[in-house]
Amino acid sequence: MVACRSLTDAEVESIECATLDAVVPDRLHHLPGWLLPMFDGTVGRARSAVPLQHGQANPAFIGPIVERYQAHGFVPAFRLPDLPAFNEFHAHLCDLGFGPEQPTLTMVGLVENLLGLHPGPPGELHAQADAQWMDMFLGPGLDPVDGASRARALSRAASTLFASVRVAGRTVASGAAAFGHGWLSVHGMRTHAAHRGQGLARRILVAMAAEAQRRALTKVFLQVDAGNEPAIALYRRAGMVTAWPYRYWRPAA
User: Fold this and answer.
1) Are strands 241-251 and 219-225 parallel, antiparallel or unpaired?
2) What is the mean pLDDT of the chain?
3) Is the whole-model pTM more than 0.70?
4) In terms of domains, do 233 and 126 share one?
5) What is the number of domains present in the chain?
6) Among 24, 96, 156, 234, which is most exposed with the fewest C-beta within 10 angstroms?
7) Beta bridge partners of 105
């Protein structure tokens, strides 16, 4: 079991609302205590039902959520915390033929702790993703269809800035920062394979943190693949801790 920092219901709700402000679905439905994003693309966060609190989850919501997705032509999916309060909910989903995938961590921290990550110049921030940023984001190792879908979801967010580090005029590291609901949220972090280990991701984070501080935001969150040990180590060096682990629950193939 991953050790987690306890968050209030208000903090959980603000993180989930900020997530969908940054990774924008095609449409967003609501049920009491739930957000139901729907997206004609591959981004899991933009196409899976997510709870707004982490208290005891009521399995009675499964049926209405499944019906709402199916009524709009989407395969139902859930993004659920791996927390004891959801054990019964998980069990009901298993009985219905759903299974868990993609272990992920939601990590939180303080903006001020990001500012000291790198002594050199911070990355650049721009209001739009230019061609070089997009080339970096869609580079080797990322499925082109998935990458294009993620870029589309990120690029239509109203509060997002696109960060990059350039070497000899070429973008070699990138990320996206969104600002809202009291949080800086970090997305789309990439570093070119030939430039890893040079502190470029830290420069990206410093630039994001400086802008968040300018906007009087003090808290930061991100979601990271639970198996991405180098990234998790970087975020922990910045004082970030796991708020909760989650997985996607989808119908078994």
Assistant:
1) unpaired
2) 93
3) yes
4) yes
5) 2
6) 156
7) 224, 245
